[in-house]
From TrEMBL:
Residues 418-512 form the Non-reducing end beta-L-arabinofuranosidase-like GH127 middle domain. PANTHER family: PROLINE-TRNA LIGASE (DUF1680). Residues 540-623 form the DUF4986 domain. It comes from Pedobacter alpinus. Residues 647-783 form the Glycoside hydrolase GH146 substrate-binding domain. Residues 26-407 form the Non-reducing end beta-L-arabinofuranosidase-like GH127 catalytic domain. This is Beta-L-arabinofuranosidase domain-containing protein. InterPro entries: 6-hairpin_glycosidase_sf (IPR008928), Beta-AFase-like_GH127_cat (IPR012878), Beta-AFase-like_GH127_middle (IPR049046), DUF4986 (IPR032275), GH146_SB_dom (IPR046544).
Length: 786
């Protein structure tokens, strides 16, 4: 009944699918950090070459590209185009930018030509197809027949095409293009056709390879058309190995690729919402609860090296420089919006606000507009930024969208209520009520906001968010100067029902506190928060290698020198919960603070400021916080381990983390009779039945190298195998019952100069002997010799 109403009722923009949201055109940003970010992002978007973005689609359709495909991330060629189309549509809807509209329309015209050409040229498998995934013909024609070899050999094909599904949906949703909607529905029908012959078991097999948000797309198609075949397909694209545990309230996310799972959860929620299926609703809700409460850092991001760590491996947040990925938060915010639509609870906005300010806003460079992939939490590390037409990472694609929709969740509505969710300077036109209003605020520089009804008269309930970071009893609300009695607690909404009219003024006082938030599972590290804002400190600009990334394969990683964590500033305090007494505002500065009467080891001149304002610098996001008793013994052990790690890092020329998706793709892995897995909270790869696995590793033209390999010291069975360098045997490794010790063991194998001379890269192969297993191998490095 609800779905039919939504389909038939003439509405605009997000309300077509998301009935609690206002059209982007009806919410205008006023001057402030979010408007600056949105306007700068439009300038950045218009520097990209549309024909180069479209080239993969034309190529796969058998048409002649009008530009050269972008070189970076070649195996994922085509994934950026859908994000770009969505970003154009959002910014056109929000600002009426004519060039965004022109480019959007041009892309839709070209994509329609691609769809028509695929239908004509690839009738056996391509009717309705409009993807740019490399080797599309072989991948999809063989997948349709149940042969997944080419599919598994490609780079996440469903993830790739999902981006264009979402782009076409958004071109209709935000940009109002009915042509985009028509292409989208035909594209959905293509997916149904290409998977129609697959059994349920085979569907689950293909979902083992990152599928993006395909289940969400079919749920959306169901809502758009009312045709239940799309809902059936949405469920077929739902990964049971993730869905079933979540339904039971079981967190089985340890060591899983984080951004593979978040889009699945979005799809679960959408299916639950539209089908009224409680199990799917429960799965989406529980996923959100466990990720935000157990797996999220102080700035709202999650994962390291793209994977969810276990409790035991959470220290990786400190050790690694590949911190939380921007795409993860992009998708977590989408899931949060969906959950809030069904249950308008303030807890969702508390998280949304934290991630929006501290992660999303911080991932755009405020001058050149570049996007960030990884945000390291490691003390005294830094981030790198993309440049237009260079690094075409996944977080460039999501970044294109992130900064174009800041106005979509400031206000929402439900029945007769208007929800004030975020304290962002803006104007709202609530056409249904004939009401216009303006929110004036300099938050977070000022802990207050003012709402003025600028036009109209209507009776409704204004729902004002009482944030979780405002101390109980300190929120202040006045209407036309008269104080409102507040009985609610933090993380709730205060309801004010009255006849609102032009000239009414609501003033909010939002006092912020300075608090400490500990790192999940690593309580010795903590961050300092001011209200919802993460306070961080700049710690120098030395050796910021690759600050603006080039087009290299690993340019998105801040690969500069790691600085020893035991040499970073350390807070020694027996009462860290009283940090507010030792952090004082800098006179004459907004949201800048300094330590007073605090014991700091390795002191520097430290100024605490919002993390989203820190760029082109190393920084402290998390601080080691020790009691006086802890300080001596703990630091001695940290110093010893840190010295060993840095020595290894300084000798490393290249490395692979076997079993992890991205590093293996990056190093052109080849395998036969090989499998990956997780054991002892670490990923591994092994091969048997005479099989092998190999990686292409860079040598930097050096000839004084050794191969470093990490094993587990207590493996069962025969573990003898051969090591090869470019098909020339380096050595035979005999690990069968070698150590009998339940600890990781590392070995170095010196590589003869003759195997390295004149080579920029080598292929390292681990080959199993008969009736034995090669591995398990947990880490591989090329090291310079001591």
């Amino acid at each position: 009944m609800l779905i039919s109403f939504l389909i038939c009722f003439t509405v605009q923009a997000q309300e077509k699918l998301y009935p609690n949201m206002f059209p982007l055109k009806d919410v205008s940003l006023l001057n402030g950090p979010f408007k600056h970010a949105r306007d700068l992002n439009i300038q950045t978007l218009l520097k990209y070459d549309v024909d180069r973005l479209l080239a993969p689609y034309l190529k796969e359709a058998g048409l002649v590209p009008k530009g050269e495909s972008y070189k970076n991330w070649e195996g994922l060629d085509g994934h950026i185009g859908g994000h770009y189309l969505a970003a154009l549509a959002m910014n056109y809807a929000a600002t009426n930018n004519a060039e965004c509209k022109r480019r959007m329309d041009y892309m839709i015209t070209e994509l329609k030509a691609c769809q028509d050409a695929n239908t004509k040229n690839h009738g056996e498998w391509g009717k309705g197809y409009v993807g740019g995934a490399p080797n599309s013909a072989e991948i999809w024609s063989t997948l349709k027949k149940g042969d997944f070899k080419a599919y598994r050999g490609g780079w996440v094909p469903w993830y790739n095409v999902h981006k264009m599904y979402a782009g076409l949906r958004d071109a209709w949703l935000y940009g109002g293009s009915n042509d985009a909607k028509d292409i989208f529905i035909k594209f959905c029908d293509w997916s149904i056709d290409v998977t129609a012959g697959l059994s349920e078991e085979q569907m689950q097999q293909i979902l083992d390879v990152e599928p993006g948000g395909m289940n969400e797309m079919f749920a959306d198609a169901y809502q758009i058309t009312g045709d239940k075949k799309y809902l059936t397909t949405a469920k077929r694209f739902s990964h049971k190995s993730i869905l079933d545990p979540l339904v039971k309230g079981v967190d089985n996310l340890d060591n899983k690729h984080a951004n593979t799972q978040v889009p699945k959860a979005i799809g679960f929620e959408r299916i639950g919402e539209l089908a009224g299926d409680q199990q799917y609703k429960d799965a989406g809700s529980f996923f959100w609860e466990t990720v935000t409460k157990n797996r999220t850092l102080a700035f709202g991001g999650n994962s390291r090296r793209e994977f969810f760590p276990s409790v035991a491996s959470s220290i990786d947040f400190v050790n690694d420089v590949e911190g939380p990925e921007t795409c993860n938060s992009y998708n977590m915010l989408k899931l949060t919006q969906d959950l809030f639509r069904l249950d308008p609870s303030a807890k969702y906005i508390d998280f949304y606000e934290k991630a929006l300010y501290n992660h999303i806003l911080s991932t755009q460079h405020p001058e050149h507009g570049g996007y960030v992939y990884f945000t390291p939490a490691r003390p005294r590390h830094y981030r790198v930024y993309s440049a237009p037409n260079e690094g075409m990472w996944c977080c460039v694609g999501s970044g294109m969208e992130n900064h174009g929709k800041y106005n979509e969740f400031i206000y929402t509505h439900q029945n007769d209520s208007l929800f004030l969710n975020l304290f962002i300077a803006s104007k709202l036109n609530w056409a249904q009520k004939g009401i216009t209003l303006k929110q004036e605020t300099n938050f977070p520089d000022e802990a207050q906001s003012k709402l003025t009804i600028t036009g109209g008269k209507s009776k409704f309930t204004l729902m004002i968010r009482y944030p979780n970071w405002v101390k109980a009893g300190t929120l202040g609300i006045t209407v036309n100067g008269k104080a409102i009695k507040i009985s609610q607690s933090p993380s709730s909404y205060v309801a004010i029902n009255r006849l609102w009219k032009k000239g009414d003024v609501v003033e909010l006082k939002l006092p912020m506190q300075t608090t400490v938030e500990h790192m999940p599972n690593i309580p010795v590290y903590a961050s300092i928060m001011r209200g919802p804002i993460l306070l961080s400190a700049k710690t120098g600009q030395d050796e910021l290698k690759g600050l603006v990334a080039d087009d290299s394969r690993w340019g998105h990683i801040a690969g500069g020198k790691k600085l020893a964590v035991d040499k970073a500033p350390i807070i020694v305090d027996d009462h860290p919960d009283k940090i507010s007494e030792r952090v004082a505002p800098l006179k004459g500065e907004n949201m800048k603070f300094q330590f007073v009467n605090e014991k700091i080891i390795n002191p520097e001149k430290l100024v605490l400021e919002p993390f989203y304002k820190i760029h082109d610098s190393r920084y402290m996001m998390y601080w080691m916080m020790l009691s006086n008793k802890q300080y001596g013994s703990y630091l001695d052990s940290v110093s010893s381990v840190e010295k060993e790690k840095l020595e290894l890092q300084n000798r490393t020329v290249d490395f692979v983390a076997p079993g992890e998706q991205q590093p293996e793709v990056d190093h052109a892995m080849q395998t036969e009779n090989s499998r990956k897995g997780v054991s002892h909270d670490q990923f591994f790869r092994e091969a048997n039945k005479g099989g092998y696995f190999s990686y292409s590793m860079a040598t930097n033209s050096l000839t004084n190298l050794s191969l470093y390999v990490r094993y587990w010291g207590a493996e069962w069975g025969n573990r003898d195998f051969e090591l090869y360098i470019d098909d020339e045997k380096l050595t035979t490794v005999k690990n069968t019952r070698r150590w009998e010790l339940s600890l990781f063991q590392s070995e170095e194998y010196k590589i003869p100069e003759t195997m390295l001379k004149g080579k920029k890269s080598i292929r390292v192969k681990f080959k199993a002997l008969p009736d034995s297993t090669a591995g398990a191998v947990y880490y591989v490095r090329l090291l310079t010799n001591k």
